[in-house]
């Protein structure tokens, strides 16, 4: 009999945090399966053939359904478990369209800039590679322009899509959190020098679901070092039970 427990295969990067954040907003029980994608664990034959042919995380398993891509995962969770936990998608078609619009803004405007900065300032140093200083400066300037637009929008409503927290906001916080945790004071100033943006970020960071997500992110960082999987997480509790395998993860043709 197949295991029907929800599973999230994920690793260390903001798209994974968005999926975790959404699960926590919904208060769902699930099993987190750690995948060290930086070490190539998402590129094994088994992973490519059974979970994601593109070799990326996160991947959600819910019964016989397998989903990859963070926004596909969070939208599914918001719709499938609409009456559980936080309502992340409005019923009204017009309000829902505004949520979708700001999710597209995230995908096409904000995320490419944030992703480049995270790559240059966090991922490359972790891999022992040199940071492209020119790219960092160029993208800081682009980010400043984007945040000016956000500042205006958030002066009209407390959240991007209106009066309530939605998927549009949820997907922005993980990359913002990574940017705030770099050593670049200029990036922090870009966010906190804009009062409406700063208030929006701080409100999201205080959400119980995000605080729980941060705990899980920290454990994922630990697992990157320990090379253990999976860890079982009960959304009704902040306690994390780590289930360590006796053997190391095999990289290559598994």
From TrEMBL:
A single MF term (Gene Ontology): glutathione binding
Enzyme nomenclature, EC number: 2.5.1.18
> Pfam families this protein is in?
GST_C, GST_N
Tell me where the transmembrane regions lie.
none
User: Record's Gene Ontology CC terms?
Assistant: cytosol
Q: GST C-terminal domain location, by residue?
A: 92-231
Report the domain of life of the source organism: Eukaryota
- Which residues does the UniProt record annotate as the domain GST N-terminal? 4-85
Which reactions appear under catalytic activity for this entry? RX + glutathione = an S-substituted glutathione + a halide anion + H(+)
- Enzyme class at the top of the EC tree: transferase
Cellular localization per UniProt: Cytoplasm, Cytosol
* Keywords of the record: Cytoplasm, Detoxification, Transferase
A biological process (GO) of this protein is: glutathione metabolic process
The family note in this entry says:
Belongs to the GST superfamily. Phi family.
What does this gene product do? May be involved in the conjugation of reduced glutathione to a wide number of exogenous and endogenous hydrophobic electrophiles and have a detoxification role against certain herbicides.
Protein name in UniProt = glutathione transferase
Source species of the chain = Arabidopsis suecica (Swedish thale-cress)
């Amino acid at each position: 009999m197949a295991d029907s427990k929800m599973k999230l295969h994920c690793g260390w990067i903001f798209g994974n945090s968005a999926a975790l954040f959404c699960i926590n907003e919904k208060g769902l029980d699930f099993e987190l399966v750690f995948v060290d994608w930086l070490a190539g664990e998402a590129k094994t034959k088994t992973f490519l053939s059974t979970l994601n042919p593109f070799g990326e995380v996160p991947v959600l398993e819910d019964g016989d359904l397998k989903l990859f891509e963070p926004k596909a995962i969070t939208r599914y969770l918001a719709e499938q478990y609409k009456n559980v936990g936080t309502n992340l998608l409005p019923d009204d078609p017009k309000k829902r369209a505004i949520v979708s619009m700001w999710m597209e803004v995230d995908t096409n405007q904000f995320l490419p800039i944030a992703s480049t900065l995270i790559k240059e300032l966090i991922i490359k140093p972790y891999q022992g590679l040199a940071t492209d200083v020119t790219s960092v400066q160029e993208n800081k300037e682009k980010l400043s322009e984007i945040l000016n637009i956000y500042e205006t929008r958030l002066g009209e409503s407390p959240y991007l899509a209106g009066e309530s927290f939605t998927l549009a906001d949820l997907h922005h916080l993980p990359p913002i959190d990574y940017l705030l945790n770099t050593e670049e004071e200029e990036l922090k100033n870009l966010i906190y020098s804009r009062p409406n943006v700063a208030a929006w970020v701080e409100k999201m960071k205080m959400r119980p679901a995000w605080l729980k997500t941060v705990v899980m992110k920290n454990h994922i960082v630990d697992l990157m070092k320990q090379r253990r999987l999976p860890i079982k997480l009960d959304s009704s509790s902040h306690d994390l039970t780590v289930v360590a395998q006796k053997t190391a993860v095999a990289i290559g043709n598994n």
